[in-house]
Specification:
By secondary structure, this protein is α+β, with helices and mostly antiparallel strands. It has three helices and seven strands, in the order ββαβαββαββ.
């Protein structure tokens, strides 16, 4: 049986995990296991929003940067933070959504709608890190 990681166990230390997903599905599995480790476990809506946010960020990194070099999740009593690292220095570009469905354009606005805050920072090795946070 896996022990839950209670925020109360170490109030000054956030709970953190890292993975290297090869697909958005791998990232979603990682999110589910991370959320299940937290105590108290986040509400279902928070977990669903986290799944959507991480899935979109990872899919975008795979599509536009060719890889995800790391996915970090961190939680404290107030927030769940997501850090997606990729090898490309190119910044995400907001595009007009394509209603025909062939060219996307919905993901980046959705990320901003779900997250408390979003930042894009230079990442290790010349790539970038996209950071986003959700309320816990």
């Amino acid at each position: 049986m896996q022990r839950q990681l209670a925020i109360d166990d170490q109030p000054s230390q956030p709970v953190q995990r890292v993975c290297h997903p090869g697909s958005a599905a791998d990232a979603r599995d990682f999110v589910r296991s991370f959320a299940a480790l937290l105590s108290p476990e986040p509400p279902d809506l928070t977990t669903q929003n986290l799944l959507l946010l991480v899935s979109e960020l990872v899919a975008n990194a795979l599509r536009h940067a060719g890889a995800v070099t790391a996915l970090h999740l961190r939680a404290d009593v107030e927030r769940i933070e997501v850090f997606v690292e990729d090898p490309s220095p190119a910044l995400p570009q907001e595009r007009s959504p394509d209603l025909s469905g062939s060219n996307g354009g919905f993901g980046w606005p959705m990320v901003h709608a779900l997250a408390l805050d979003v930042a894009v920072l230079p990442g290790p090795g010349g790539g970038k890190t996209v950071q986003a946070a959700l309320p816990r």
